[in-house]
Amino acid sequence: MWTHTRRSILGPAGRSIRPSKRPSGEDLYGHHTQTEQDTDREGETFPSKKIDLLSRNGVRAYTACIYALRPSTTTDLAPAEVTTTTKRSDSYSYSPPRPRQGSQRDTRGTARRRRNNQGELVVPSSGACGGRRTAAAGMGVYELVRTEDAAGPAMDLEAGRGLPPPPAKAPPAAAQRLVSLDVFRGITVLLMIIVDDAGSFLPAMNHSPWEGVTIADFVMPFFLFIVGVALALAYKRVPDKLDATRKATLRALKLFCVGLVLQGGFFHGVRSLTFGVDIAQIRLMGILQRIAIAYLVTALCQIWLKGDDDVDSGLDLIKRYKYQLLAGLLITITYMALLYGTYVPDWEYRISGPGFTEKTFTVRCGVRGDSGPGCNAVGMIDRKILGIQHLYGRPVYARSQQCSIDSPQNGPLPPDAPSWCQAPFDPEGLLSSVMAIVTCLIGLQYGHIIVHFQKHKERIMHWLVPSFGMLVLAFAMDFFGMHMNKPLYTLSYTLCTAGAAGLLFAGIYTLVDLYGYRRPTVAMEWMGMHALMIFVLIACNILPIFIHGFYWGEPNNNLLKFIGIKA
């Protein structure tokens, strides 16, 4: 059964014609037929079209006979073209009549016409149906045309020719990964492995003792930037916000727990075959914990804080995601107010000395807005909230000139070393992780550029402009006294590392996704797709510890002894 869904047809006289169904049946030859009646606004009905559905040699052929419509009152006013859509994505278009050249006859239907035996108005002219032409043929005809969603070629109903039904649509292809993002992640993982191993004998590859930045100080911000870009692609469409929030929270908790096990002190070292940690002294913060916090906050912003404005330019992008930018601004203002406005009083700590004796050290502060290692608000907040026993026991400032004779490497304390040189300090603390959220939000905006701009040139330009702007602003702030500092995660450090990440990502995108240089980056792409596994096995020494567990005779006789890996 073929069904037709048509809108009202505006006839030549401006009168609306609406189709109404009549039950279909069979003709004398057993062919299925379907007859429609057209109803005008006055309720009058008359036959409009008859379709024979014939089957010849297994292929359907379609023929159409056009019957009488109400005669036109004018010949120069063309009826509106209307389309009737069928269930096979084909459509019928109503074509206006062509007025006879030089005709001066009355337009009110005074032409010669007669009624046949069925009461139909017929004009004496040759037509497509049995040599007869109806009055409707003089006004316009219906013909099958192709619609936008039709899968096959159009069929000519009057000629009785057509093609078989189109094949079913293929299932949609799986979404492709952004190769340049995987390569960027792989490069960051490789850089992390290099600085962890080479930092002990190459100071330029090690973390800065306090102020300033080195190559190693770009690893953490790069990871956070990549997380933001990935979130923009992952949450491009959010049909169920509550379900997306639940899933994002669960992912963040899983990542936090993994970091708690790997960096909380559960594993004691590569050469140590013991494991376990005292809950009262477990390290609560770490690399994965910081990433988990930034991931959760950024995911919530992407799920709940985005508008529905159309994006055609960079300004439209700012308008659409203005609430996310406002959230990042409020986070930055809160951090700056706490860092430079919190009063840090004197404090003390204890460490175990030789013979299990405890030593107590007192740090004199009583200042506000200090950015030094001993009296900053970042360390004070961690000590108050987390507890000094849950902080990292080997502070990065222990390699500074004030605390090490062999600076920038670890070494003996100078005779006049300050009292805070051996105090625990967590480089991934609470307040510093607040600014890590800002880095992730910056990466989120770079991901929005991928979503809303399709041309490579537009994407690259929208990346380069803010990247250079952040770098210029970062060096200006460092010049005027707000120095780049990774342990404190200062604003100048945030802008510098985010700008560098944007430039590097734009360069990788140009080489890999634009020019197609994928073969030289296959290894980096693989590392980027398995970044968490590599981090767990290599960066956290899980693989060396596992290999160390198999030895001959005594624990020192193992494969790691010949490789040269030390605890």
Features:
567 residues; alpha+beta; 2 domains; 6-stranded antiparallel sheet; 15 helices; 38% helix
Describe the structure.
- The chain is an alpha+beta fold.
- It folds into two domains: 4-146, no CATH class; 179-563, no CATH class.
- Helices cover 38% and strands 14% of the residues.
- The protein contains 15 helices and 17 strands.
- Strands 2, 3, 4, 5, 6 and 7 form a six-stranded antiparallel β-sheet that branches. The protein has a four-stranded antiparallel β-sheet with strand order 1-8-9-13, with no helix packed on it.
- Helix 3 packs parallel to helix 5.
* Low-pLDDT stretches: 1-95, 101-113, 121-162, 170-174
Query: What share of residues are in beta strands?
Result: 5-15%
Percent range of helical residues: 25-40%
Number of strands: 17
Arithmetic mean of pLDDT:
77
Structural class: alpha+beta
- Count of discrete domains: 2
Shape designation: globular
> Rg to the nearest angstrom?
38 Å
Distance between the termini: 79 Å
Query: Largest sheet, described in full?
Result: 6 strands, antiparallel
Helical segment count: 15
